[in-house]
């Protein structure tokens, strides 16, 4: 593909859709990086199992969004939220579990649900709207799982 064609395609994406791709990409990259950390830093089996599930699901989701982004000439991979990942890197065991559940599982999925809902309702690109609508039940389920995990850990 010649550069002018890629340029023209990326210009067709509305600012709302571009922002969605950027925010969704960062949220996914952050989820993956934090969940990979959880596999070695978490002490709780349920937290590690949740993290493993997030790695599988978010890898699939990221692949789907990357395909759509590339169609619009957006090829730069999204970077994870380095301040969040940095804050988790130095934690171990129960301290890590608590921070991961709060910042990644709960806050991250709450924001992602809102982000994907907004795109599915008011995005301009039909393929992105459809992808957001298709991903929404999965992300909503992750948020429900996160709430159950938080409840279970608060009780123990």
From TrEMBL:
Domain of life the protein comes from: Bacteria
Residues in DUF4142 domain copies: 17-149
Alphabetical list of PANTHER family matching this protein: BLR2558 PROTEIN (PTHR38593:SF1)
Protein name, entry field: DUF4142 domain-containing protein
Natural source organism: Caballeronia jiangsuensis
């Amino acid at each position: 593909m010649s550069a002018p064609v890629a340029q023209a395609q990326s210009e067709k994406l509305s600012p709302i859709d571009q922002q969605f791709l950027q925010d969704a990409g960062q949220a996914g990259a952050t989820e993956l990086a934090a969940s990979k950390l959880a596999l070695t830093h978490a002490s709780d089996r349920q937290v590690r199992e949740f993290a493993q599930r997030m790695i599988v699901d978010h890898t699939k989701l990221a692949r789907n969004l990357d395909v759509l982004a590339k169609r619009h000439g957006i090829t730069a991979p999204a970077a994870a939220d380095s301040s969040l990942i940095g804050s988790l890197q130095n934690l171990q065991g129960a301290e890590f579990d608590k921070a991961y559940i709060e910042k990644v599982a709960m806050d991250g999925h709450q924001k992602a649900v809102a982000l994907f809902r907004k795109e599915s309702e008011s995005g301009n690109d039909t393929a992105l709207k459809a992808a957001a609508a298709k991903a929404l039940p999965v992300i909503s389920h992750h948020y429900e799982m996160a709430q159950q995990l938080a409840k279970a850990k608060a009780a123990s």
